[in-house]
Amino acid sequence: MGHESVGEIIKLGNEVTNLKIGDIVAFPAGLHNACGKCYFCINEEEVFCENATFTSSRGYGTMQDECIEKASFCVKVPDGVNLAQACVITCAGLTVYKGLKIAQPKQGDFVAIYCIGGLGNIAIEYAKNIFKTKVIAIGSNKKSLEIAKEKGADYIINWKEENVDYAIKKITNNGVAVALVTSSTSDQFEMAYRNLKSVGKLIAIGLPKAKLEIDIIDLVLTAKQIIGTLVGTRKDLEESLDYFSKGLINPDLVVEPLIKAPEYFKLMEENKLHTRIVFDFNK
């Protein structure tokens, strides 16, 4: 909680030279600090540093009027952008962008996005507008699937109404190049693996409390890949925000005053949210 945020700098430490008062900054998924010396930090994968700390681990994170952040972990937000939308880029957008960046689909490849919703619909825009792929959106919530179509998905599959394996076979002939799975249920991961073509990549983003059973012989003979991804780094966030500032990404959201937070947390628990919610402390 409190890890997707942007804010204005109102005070600086004496040794800070890379920022100034009034700058608008963000953090990659609320990353607050890392050691800067380990293998992961040296190789620009600081989110895996054993000593990394995240804003959300400190109580309410940035869901407060003021907070103290380390200057070297602040990423400048481009001028002139919608700041509420920029909040969404800092984790949701960043996470799916990182997954696609790892997968590196080629222009025209089929990318299947499983569990269309808050993450999935942002992923559609990155897949379409940045990587120039053909997108198959797979989900069960009709409202979310309608939004997916508006976001540019080339094909829509409602897994409650259609046989996903058959539908993907019909669309692609031999499977998808990339499956991006944001689901919290293991059956979506198994479905995604089945529908990869040879040398296809399954990018695991969702966090189901389950094990994934894979036919190892099939894995070897088809050279499919299963890749987990946590979230992006500061460099990835800079890239994500740059694409956003160019108008290539347009996150859907609703801006509300903080007092409405309990109401929206309840809707989230009931699986009734179809968009991102940003709380504005000035409302």
TrEMBL record:
Residue ranges constituting the Alcohol dehydrogenase-like N-terminal domain according to the UniProt record: 1-79
Enzyme nomenclature, EC number: 1.1.1.1
Keyword DNA-binding appears in the UniProt entry: no
Gene3D superfamilies: Medium-chain alcohol dehydrogenases, catalytic domain (3.90.180.10), NAD(P)-binding Rossmann-like Domain (3.40.50.720)
Any GO CC annotation of this UniProt entry: cytoplasm
A GO molecular-function annotation: zinc ion binding
Listed cofactors: Zn(2+)
Main EC class the enzyme belongs to: oxidoreductase
PANTHER family linked to this entry: ALCOHOL DEHYDROGENASE 1-RELATED (PTHR42940), VACUOLAR PROTEIN SORTING-ASSOCIATED PROTEIN 11 (PTHR42940:SF8)
Family affiliation: Belongs to the zinc-containing alcohol dehydrogenase family.
UniProt-recorded name of the protein: Alcohol dehydrogenase
Source species: Spiroplasma taiwanense CT-1
